[in-house]
Amino acid sequence: MATTTDIKNGLCMKYNHGIYTVTEFQHVKPGKGPAFVRTKLKNVETGKVIDNTFPSGHKIDVVRVERRKYQFLYKDEAGYHFMNEETYEQTFIAEKIINAPQFLKEGNYVEIVFNAEDETPLLCELPASLVLEVTYTEPGEKGNTATNAFKPATVETGAEVRVPLFINTGDHIKISTESGDYSERVKI
Known about the structure:
By secondary structure, this protein is mainly beta. It folds into 3 domains: 61 residues, SH3 type barrels; 61 residues, CATH 2.40.50.140; 58 residues, CATH 2.40.50.140. The chain contains no helices and 16 strands. The strands form 3 sheets. Strands 1-6-2-3-4-5 form a 6-stranded antiparallel beta sheet, with no helix packed on it. The chain has a 5-stranded antiparallel beta sheet with strand order 9-8-7-10-11, with no helix packed on it. Strands 14-13-12-15-16 form a 5-stranded antiparallel beta sheet, with no helix packed on it.
């Protein structure tokens, strides 16, 4: 059993009959009254984010998790198949626990978080950003770059992203996997 002093970003805990991970927290000591901890908790199974306030010293049930690096192999009707680089053990993951499955490309590396007690995968996290090639986009018009305008573009995984007008088919772009937004053009 841990207490609220052990709360930090990324901590996994059992709360309301589910497993939640802490995405944000703040220790608050008001002038009047007892101290408390304000948190944002993300449900590992559903992805729903809730706000919760714990009184200072409150006991929390911590779930021990292990993060392991895996390589994405392929997708079929059973799910997404990954391989552990050290043991060559293969596992498959359901799409609902992957944070951005539309950007997965064969050979990408991800971190899979496992519940250490029963070895069940809890979530699969892609890197913060990925570099992908634009396979199709409409050509930009000359002289139409004064505004901060965007156009749709399809990347090599089949996902659609909004990009600036100067991006052309064949360009490589960096995409934020958390928001799905264009970050920058990359020279390869």
